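Suppose you are handed a protein chain with no further information: no name, no annotation, nothing but its sequence. What can you learn? This example shows the usual starting point.
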Amino acid sequence: MARGIRTALFAALVTGCLTLANAAPTFAFGTVAPSTLKGGDGPARLRLPTPTGPYPVGTVDLHLVDRTRTDPWATTPASRELMVSLWYPATDVARFPRAPHMLSGAAAHFGSADGVGVSLYGIPAGAVDFAATRTSGHRGAPMARHARPFPVVLYSPGAGDPRTWNTTVVQDLASRGYVVVTIDHTYETSEVEFPDGRVLTTVLPQLFEQAQQPDDFQRLAARVFDTRVADTRFVLDQLAALHRGVNPDAEGRPLPRGVAGGLDLRRTGMFGVSAGGITALQVMSEDPRIRAAIDMDGSIESPIVPDALRLWPVTRTGLDRPFMFVGDSGTDHRQTPSWRMLWDNSTGWRVDLRLDGAPSEDAYKDVVPLLPQIARQLGLPDSFVTGTIGTIDPARAIRTQETLVTAFFDRWLRDRDGHLLDGPSPRLPGVTFIP
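A reasonable first move is to predict its three-dimensional structure. Written in structure tokens, the prediction is:
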């Protein structure tokens, strides 16, 4: 295969959707000295939106090691290692510091010339201090007191994205009474920082460069999704141990008070963006512990992979539990073959909708609140923002996404049906339901 085709396929995969038409553009800002940009008082500093729910938010990172599985991406045999974060309703948060959006080592790589901040989102290298951004999650704060354990929702990011790249929605969901578990898929995500300071970066660009034939791409893509599903099912196992009072952290770091016994794993859902959405629905198909799932703009269509649909078996088996598609102007179950097949083969409740003006999956990530801030502080043109998230109003897009995710999980994990997802409504302006 020509270098350009291999590069395009990788770009399509790291945006989480195996389709060249939807591949995110690669910008060529390169390394830009912050002083050469407007407002050159140092790297830009960013703020995430404040959660809207009634609970303060706590968070803790866990280092998980699956000693039953050899890491499929490591160059030397090693057990599979993952980093996950728990976000949860908290109490007494004033005594606990707010957690960073990204740890310092991960932030440095994400914002460097080698990170996806540049390659996928066009953010000038070195021009943003990603480590300085603080979340609303208080590290190590006690879990809020509860009459019954909180429902659990897992989050899987788009391929190439870190688990932190949808913190806006994740922490909002936690503030509304959920334990949200975000997963980094090591060696696939742009970078993962471990407690000992190691920062492991993606190996996918090199592997895609080495691929020569369509079957090579098929096998590589299959390994991506098979590994994601195995990662997620392992995390579910570790959450069960955590609920029983076992500390699954590899270093044995103390857990926040109240976390053990605070998870209602009988009410577990999952969502993800792009490849993470594909993962969520496939895991639900294979594992009855997932009761409901959301796929945000994740589909599989490719003119290069010989049998792309084989990568997503759930399209043929269908689903008997609730799921929600959230697409863009070019992705819905009427015009996207993989979504149409899954829709037609499913018997469970389902809904397909989109945020009007959303040009791609990027309308459902942290780029929505952060790119406009970067543009303002660095004096970048409007096209820097609109080229990625279109013309949607960021504030409206953020709150609408939070509302949709909460309404879905409230309905299927809490039996709180506000009928918001029944169809078009003045309560959901700018949302189109696909019949």
